[in-house]
């Protein structure tokens, strides 16, 4: 009797803890949709394609920031994903080597590293020498933020595959590169893709690194790699500090757009990748 009571108390405690964990998430979703949806409905297509309105004079649009977010995320992925995946592969293939252990430790540190310091670093090595904010500087900062997430997920996905599959591939005379990139990566694709998506979602919503690198451009569309570029999170940060009511409404609408972009990319791809059962 006492054991059953303890079991029920434990299950109730777990249920309550789970509920308390997910309540903030759904509260954020509800708040963003409740405040952002009316802005999208009132603004219409102009909100997605137009430029920022003057203070206290309508909504205008966030077109340059939407384009800038896609450009920055694409460039950051182009620079960061190959390095991150290869780093994860190396860490998984040589886990007991000195370099492998150091790499794993460094990746874990980078995951918790303040991203604003990454922005300061890129500002010193790229923005100041160039004399201007730029899309390439913002993308480089985001690539640095993205890499540890993708690398760690790649490593974990590869290390979860039983060694017997790798051993069997080597027994057939396959080279290490073939075993890793054609067999192991295929079996670990769900974990690797999850890491890539989380990394992209992370940088798509980053603000701190862009404060010192991208500069922000809310009224001019993407003008080149060496020119300032806008981004949705950077626009939201700038608008919520303004005293104007229409800017606060635009910030809510931009928040909803950012959330929809993330959900539209993450959910379909995550559901379409079938898990390989070993």
TrEMBL record:
Matching InterPro entries, A to Z? MetI-like, MetI-like_sf, Phosphate_PstA, Phosphate_transprt_permease
Q: Which Gene3D superfamilies match?
A: MetI-like
**Which Gene Ontology molecular function entries are recorded, alphabetically?**
phosphate transmembrane transporter activity
**What are the GO cellular component annotations?**
plasma membrane
Write out the annotated subcellular location. Answer: Cell membrane
What family is it from?
Belongs to the binding-protein-dependent transport system permease family. CysTW subfamily.
Q: Which NCBIfam families match?
A: 3a0107s02c
Task: Provide the topology term for how it sits in the membrane.
Answer: Multi-pass membrane protein
What is the name of the protein in this document?
Phosphate transport system permease protein PstA
Keywords for this entry?
Cell membrane, Membrane, Phosphate transport, Transmembrane, Transmembrane helix, Transport
**TM stretches of this protein:** 9-30, 66-94, 106-127, 133-152, 192-212, 250-269
Per the database entry, which stretches of residues form a coiled coil?
A: none
